[in-house]
């Protein structure tokens, strides 16, 4: 009897699923090669849909792998010592990110920071450096970049740095 699974999958489950799909893609490619190797043109033509299936499986594997990476970041972001903001920043320049597909970069002049994932749309995983309190009394733990942005943009927001030696960037 199999163990019940947790309601929320863990990244290792997704990586195992990707490995199973990879094994299936290898078998599918091998079948396509065997179909192409026959002398019968009718059988050879059947390799085309098998090659497409192999290609589709490779895309599927990539999506699963990206989901596992994103799930890892989401789970890490739940650490109470990290920033509470559900979107990323450039740790050096703040709210200056752009993203395209699985890539993000800082748009600040001269900044070379880039990431091989969509950091803009991922929860922030920078260490909490301040407690921000808005005018309604709602508080949150923020990294220094998000704290600096909140201080500039949110009317009535107060920032208390956890390390009193820290300064706004």
Explain the overall architecture.
The protein is an alpha+beta fold. Helices cover 42% and strands 13% of the residues. The protein has 4 helices and 6 strands; from the N terminus they run αααβββββαβ. It has helices at residues 11-36, 41-45, 47-76, 144-153, and strands at 97-100, 103-106, 114-115, 130-133, 139-142, 158-161. The strands form 2 sheets. A 3-stranded antiparallel β-sheet has the order 1-2-3, with no helix packed on it. Strands 5-4-6 form a 3-stranded antiparallel β-sheet. The longest helix is centred in the middle third of the chain and has 30 residues, at 47-76. The radius of gyration is 24 Å and the shape is elongated. The N and C termini lie far apart (56 Å). The mean pLDDT is 91.
């Amino acid at each position: 009897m199999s163990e019940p699974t947790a309601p929320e999958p863990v990244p290792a489950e997704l990586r195992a699923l990707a490995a199973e799909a990879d094994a299936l893609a290898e078998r599918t490619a091998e079948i396509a090669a065997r179909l192409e190797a026959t002398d019968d043109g009718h059988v050879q033509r059947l390799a085309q849909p098998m090659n497409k299936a192999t290609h589709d499986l490779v895309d599927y594997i990539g999506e699963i792998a990206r989901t596992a990476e994103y799930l890892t970041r989401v789970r890490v972001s739940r650490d109470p010592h990290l920033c509470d903001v559900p979107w990323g920043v450039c740790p050096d320049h703040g709210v200056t990110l752009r993203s395209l597909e699985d890539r993000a970069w800082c748009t600040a002049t001269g900044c070379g920071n880039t990431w091989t994932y969509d950091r803009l749309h991922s929860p922030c995983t920078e260490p909490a450096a301040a407690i921000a309190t808005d005018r309604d009394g709602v508080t949150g733990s923020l990294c220094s970049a998000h704290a600096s942005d909140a201080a500039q943009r949110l009317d009535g927001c107060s920032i208390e740095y956890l390390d009193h030696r820290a300064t706004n960037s």
